[in-house]
Write a structure and sequence with these properties.
- With about 140 residues, this protein is an alpha+beta fold.
- About 15% of the residues are buried.
- Strands 1-2-3-4 form a four-stranded antiparallel β-sheet.
- Helix 3 packs antiparallel against helix 4.
- It contains five helices and four strands; from the N terminus they run βαβαααββα.
- The protein is elongated and about 55 Å long.
């Protein structure tokens, strides 16, 4: 059975609850003391040959994804989770040439004076096709 060349298979990679000790937060104390974040990422894998070949080298190395996320989360301190998520998304888009990336960072024990299970931010970044963008601006 041969695949129809017109058919397209979409592959999404998800990594959930990657637990990393970080130093992000609005207050100096929060950045100095640090805290655990749980990070979820999801992104598309364009031209994923592994659906046909079943070869590891034809897909995404999940360990590499975790390393990219961990490095972005620990190499410097950000005041907002929004900025951290954006940096992670940019790095994943650059490395894996994906069209869209979702990054969610949660503080399971936020430093708030009221009991909250977690606070979280999700950033969705999509690649903008320059040609489509230019066509859309020229309107008639």
């Amino acid at each position: 059975m041969h695949a129809d060349p017109a058919e397209s298979t979409s592959v999404d990679v998800e990594i959930r609850r990657l637990s990393i000790f970080t130093h992000h937060g609005v207050t100096e104390a929060e950045r100095e003391t640090g805290q655990r974040l749980e990070i979820d990422v999801g992104f598309d894998v364009p031209d994923c040959d592994a659906v046909l070949t079943d070869r590891i080298e034809d897909t995404v190395d999940y360990g590499e994804v975790c390393d990219i996320v961990a490095l972005a989360a620990t190499e410097r301190s950000y005041k907002t989770l929004e900025r951290l998520c954006h940096v992670i998304a940019e790095r994943l888009m650059e490395r894996f040439a994906c069209e869209s990336v979702r990054v969610r960072a949660a503080k399971p024990e936020p430093p708030l004076p009221i009991a909250v299970e977690e606070v979280a931010v999700q950033v969705v970044q999509e690649r903008v096709d320059v040609e489509e963008d230019e066509e859309g601006e020229g309107g008639a």
